[in-house]
Amino acid sequence: MSRTRILIVEDEPIVSRDIQDTIVSFGYEVAATASSGEEAVKKAAEWTPDLVLMDIVLKGDMDGVEAAACIQAQRNVLVVYMSAHSEIEILDRAKLTCPYGYVMKPFTERELALAIAVTLARRIEPPTCS
To answer: Whole-angstrom Cα distance, residue 130 to residue 117?
Structure first.
């Protein structure tokens, strides 16, 4: 059985590297990393991850919510948002993409591990948006 492949979308290099190291320590494979929404869409098509850990505020013209919507339009993929932003407008936009989770920054390794584990456990049952 192959390892779960995760695309990390984070525009802060130090945070991205920390998440990569954490993901590997959990036993998952880092399929790729991206620092912009546009790059995330390209890499998701190229590397076909099982899960995308998506920051919302990114470099470039496309934010994480737009990138997640584009990626999901291409293929069925699990998305967990990671963000320091909890404004209602952002949450309402994010909810439209039917994410499996929303982890507030700064988060602990345990919080990230739990978000990933719960998401992967639910992957056989796609969420229903309401």
So the answer is: 23
| pTM to 2 decimal places | 0.92
- Number of separate domains in the chain: 1
Which residue range is the domain that position 53 belongs to?
A: 5-121
pLDDT tens by residue, the chain, 130 residues:
568 999 999 999 999 999 999 999 999 999 999 999 999 999 999 999 999 999 999 999 999 999 999 999 999 899 999 999 889 999 999 999 999 999 999 999 999 999 999 999 987 655 566 5
Strand order in the sheet with 78-83: 29-34, 5-9, 51-55, 78-83, 101-104
> In whole angstroms, what is the distance from residue 70 CA to residue 38 CA?
9
For residue 18, the one-letter residue type is: D
